[in-house]
Amino acid sequence: MDLLLAQLRSHADSSNTLAFASDELRSDKEFLIKAMRINGLALEHADSTNRNAKEVVMEATRQNGNALAFASDRLRSDPEVISTAVSESGTAGQYAVPNGESTEESYRFGISFNLSNKLLLAGYCDDFERYARDGMLTLRGDIWMGVVGIEGKFGLRIPPSGKDIDAWEASISAGQEDWWGFIGMITVPANGWGNSNILIYVENNTFFDMAHQILATIEISECIDVLTLEGPVYLEVLYAAWGQTWKLLQSRFDARDLKFG
Questions:
Q1: What is the pTM for the complete model shown?
Q2: Is the same domain home to 45 and 114?
Q3: What DSSP character marks residue 133?
Q4: Whose CA is closest to 99, among 111, 107, 91, 90?
Q5: Which residues of the chain register pLDDT less than 50?
Q6: Which of 95, 121, 141 is the last residue of a domain?
Q7: What is the pLDDT of residue 244?
Q8: Domain range for residue 183?
Q9: What whole-number distance in Å separates Cα of residue 255 and Cα of residue 261?
Q10: Are residues 145 and 65 in the same domain?
Q11: Are 128 and 243 in a shared domain?
Q12: 160 close to 176: Cβ distance less than 8 angstroms
């Protein structure tokens, strides 16, 4: 067991290591939890019972959100599992299986990620450098489907500082972390049949001097009639729309998955 865990740690393509394990190990829940903490994608080679075990799958998706692809259908539709996977990897939503629930909460999911300060804010980037780490701003918030397409609101992480921050936007005591309302995202119709744009703008609840300024317009070639969507179809489109949006954010703003731990 220890040798196999060591191999998982030492090989770049370590998820395949579990494929050569004995049936006994691939069905051993305690061993699999340890393995998932090293490489979540090794979930692919766990037995079917453990791919349906929430504790195992949660460890896998915490380590690598895209491990959601190898979970059972039951857990791929579990809101807690989906949220964990998407928080770790912005592309993991494509593997979710809508469960048919139609509550308002099931129509949204939370997401955290990093964006390049310089690419997002251009002429304002110097003002936000104190909130960046290695040139990246950390955002978290919710996304959902609006009338035309994907929408969202995201707060900006304000990292702990050695001194009090008493800005006119907001205040925070030394040594404390905070999240301030920052940007919104909305899809609007554009010229041409079926075309639309994603607008990224500054919200008006914290950085008042920039309120409602449009930071970027991203063209997309698909306009969705969201009013006709219900239940699982709605969620399926939401996950797909985020996957498309995430690729655009990666290309435009060097978006990166937020790694925890």
A1: 0.60
A2: no
A3: B
A4: 107
A5: 100-106, 227, 259-261
A6: 95
A7: 80
A8: 98-261
A9: 19
A10: no
A11: yes
A12: yes
